[in-house]
Amino acid sequence: MDWGMKNRLSKLIAKDGHCFFMPIDHGYFQGPTNCLEEPGKTIVPLLKYCDALFATRGVVRSCIDASVDKPVILRVSGGTSMVGKDLAHEGISTSIEEILRLNAAAVGVSIFVGSDYEHETLMNLSGLVNECERYGIPVMAVTAVGKEIGKMEPRYLALACRIAAELGARVVKTYWCQKDFDKVVRGCPVPVVMAGGPKCDTEKEVFDFVYDGMQNGAIGINLGRNIWQNPHPVAVAKALWAIVHEKKSSKEAFEIFNEAKK
User: Fold this and answer.
1) Which of 59, 66, 87, 222 could form a disulfide with 55 if both were Cys (CB 3.0 to 4.6 A apart)?
2) Is 173 a known active-site residue?
3) Domain locations in the chain as residue ranges
4) Residue pair 70/40 in contact by the 8 Å Cβ criterion
5) d(CA 176, CA 223)
6) For 234, phi and psi rounded to 5 degrees?
7) SS3 letters across the chain
8) Cα distance between residue 51 and residue 121, in whole Å
9) pLDDT digits (tens, 9 = 90+) for 150-167
10) How many CB atoms sit inside 10 A of residue 96's CB?
11) Angle at which helices 233-246 and 203-215 pack, to 10 degrees?
12) What is the pTM of this model?
């Protein structure tokens, strides 16, 4: 692995081998998402507890202070919306020149395995890897499911993660599943990061699945809505940081949350 690639990955993944990414890229297909209407303000109290931000170039330029000492994973796929025909019909939205100009530590692209646009999104990933490897930029593949949330089961997730790794992704972001998540991770030869998915009903539910995923091989999380849509976002972030980087249990994290929200 080239020095540049190693250096960028070291900025994203802490020395303990774990990571806490915070996505604020939802607006690229959802528009002004609840609690993310002003992303620059939303992230300020949360920056202390994340290792990197996952955002689009528009939000990076217009909302994030350039002095912020957090690496950026740049969302570079898009071209669809919630009101369109198919969320899977994505293309690559950002050039390699833009990626370099914005000093991105990594880039993220969605793949939709099993959709009508499976081939197109997998070729998006392949082409992006070809470009980014030339410049030592890691590519994170996001195993998206669009509106078909029922696909979040181990056999499907294992398939999508393995394909992403085979095509050259350096990191794979995927959903946690209650059964056989360890098999999903073992079948993927690159690090796996957990997505937040739909907003959970309770904080304990979030802490439980994150703890379980970490115990079963994930190196970290990429959670957004379950943090910044919570009435106590800083308390949630602090508790999740404790699970990811301090090896706290779900029960301990819930105690940290309850104490912090006071």
Assistant:
1) 59
2) yes
3) 3-260
4) no
5) 12
6) -65, -40
7) CCHHHHHHHHHHCCCCCCEEEEECCCHHHHCCCCCCCCHHHHHHHHHHHCCEEEECHHHHHHHCCCCCCCCEEEECEECCCCCCCCCCCCEECCCHHHHHHCCCCEEEEEECCCCCCHHHHHHHHHHHHHHHHCCCCCEEEEECCCCCHHHCCHHHHHHHHHHHHHCCCCEEEEECCCCCHHHHHHCCCCCEEEECCCCCCCHHHHHHHHHHHHHCCCCEEECCHHHHCCCCHHHHHHHHHHHHHHCCCHHHHHHHHHHHCC
8) 27
9) 567 899 999 999 999 999
10) 17
11) 20
12) 0.95
Instruction: Considering the candidates 11, 41, 151, 173, report the single residue annotated as catalytic.
Output: 173
Q: Tell me, what amino acid is at 196?
A: G
Q: Which two tokens stand for residue 37?
A: 């209407």
Cα–Cα distance for residue pair 202/13, rounded to 1 Å? 28
Q: What is the pLDDT of residues 222-257, one digit of tens each?
A: 999 999 999 999 999 999 999 999 999 999 999 999
The CATH code belonging to domain 3-260 is 3.20.20.70
Q: Which two tokens stand for residue 66?
A: 């350039």
Burial of 103 from C-beta contacts in 10 A (0-12 / 13-18 / 19+): exposed
Q: Residue 206 and residue 259: Cα distance in Å, rounded? A: 17
